Amino acid sequence: MERISSDGGMPAHLRGAVIALGNFDGFHAGHQAVAGAAIAWARREGRPTIIATFDPHPVRLFVPDAPPFRLTTLDQRERLFAAAGADAMLVFHFTRALASRSAEGFVHMLVEQFGARAVVTGEDFTFGRGRAGTVALLGELGRPLGLDALAVPPVTDASGAVISSTRIRDALVAGDCATATRLLTRPFAIAGTVIHGDKRGREIGFPTANMEMGPYLRPAYGVYAVRARLPDGRLADGAANLGIRPTFDPPKELLETYLFDFSGDLYGQTIEIELIERLRGEAKFETLPALVAQMDDDVTRARAMLRG
């Protein structure tokens, strides 16, 4: 998998590609349908497949003070795109200059700068200044330039509701991991560098790998049964507290993960924590013994849930 930047040109061996074009934050079942159509088209014609994404998210440019809402980092998207079968990821750096480009100018850029032969999008995809470009206009503008276009209809779940990043965010904010997992086709996962904390967990018999949340959406605070992907690729079960640790002063937002039956030094390394099930909300305890008793119960419940 290669990562290409919109700031540069397209390598010769990737020109003539079929490009799946969208933001693809989360790369949920609907996004996967768009990518899958692009990959199938490219394979039929013996062409490379590129999945394009935007960074930062357009919302971040136009509403810079918006609360964190990301479902995936660029590194996570790159791994997901590779697993889907793409040859490369194209990252459009979403700047004022790109946002102000006309719809016609955007299509010319796809053909001239990136050598696109075909583009696959969702039916709701818009592009160009003022979001004036529609999938119909994409086909109309691309045709004279030799650029074919395909729009993939929305994907719905068993209830008939359209699968979207908004539904996934709403589920996570409500602490509904099962719905988020179903729509994503995998658990929501937070990747980050393990940092040094105040070692309180170690002092009470529950050493934790601590991570900051960064740009991720904040799921409902509380205690979760989790599965961690370690730097060497191993998976480890655990229980994690996501929140501000109200029992301790000063409050500090962290994801603190206690890994079952694990020993080792993870400081400075990147791990990925999958939220499997929310066990309870975050709570303040008046004494450390009360906190330890609750954590014992949390661990017992998490072990049983993850075994099942």
Structural class: alpha/beta
Output mean pLDDT: 93
Q: Strand tally, please?
A: 12
Which percent range fits the helix content? 25-40%
Q: What is the distance, rounded to the nearest whole angstrom, between the alpha carbons of the first and last residues?
A: 35 Å
- The unreliable regions are none
Cα radius of gyration in angstroms: 22 Å
Major sheet size, sense and barrel closure: 6 strands, parallel
Number of helices: 10
Strand content: 15-25%
Inertia-based shape: elongated
N-to-C series of helices and strands: EEHEHHEHHEHEHHEHEEEEEH
Adjacency order of strands in the biggest sheet: 1-4-3-2-5-6
List keywords for this structure.
alpha/beta, 308 residues
Question: How are the SSEs placed, and which strands pair?
Answer:
Layout: E1 2-5, E2 18-21, H1 29-45, E3 49-55, H2 58-62, H3 74-84, E4 88-93, H4 96-99, H5 103-112, E5 118-122, H6 135-142, E6 148-152, H7 165-173, H8 177-184, E7 189-193, H9 200-203, E8 209-211, E9 222-229, E10 235-243, E11 254-259, E12 270-280, H10 288-307
Parallel strand pairs: 1-4, 2-3, 2-5, 3-4, 5-6
Antiparallel strand pairs: 7-12, 8-11, 9-10, 9-12, 10-11
Q: Can you put this structure into words, describing what you see?
A:
The chain has 308 residues and is an alpha/beta fold. 31% of the residues lie in helices and 24% in strands. The protein is built from 10 helices and 12 strands. It has helices spanning 29-45, 58-62, 74-84, 96-99, 103-112, 135-142, 165-173, 177-184, 200-203, 288-307; strands spanning 2-5, 18-21, 49-55, 88-93, 118-122, 148-152, 189-193, 209-211, 222-229, 235-243, 254-259, 270-280. It has a 6-stranded parallel sheet, sandwiched between helices. Strands 7-12-9-10-11-8 form a 6-stranded antiparallel sheet. Strand 2 (18-21), helix 1 and strand 3 (49-55) form a beta-alpha-beta unit. Helix 5 packs across helix 6 (135-142). The longest helix is centred in the last third of the chain and has 20 residues, at 288-307. The two termini are 35 Å apart.
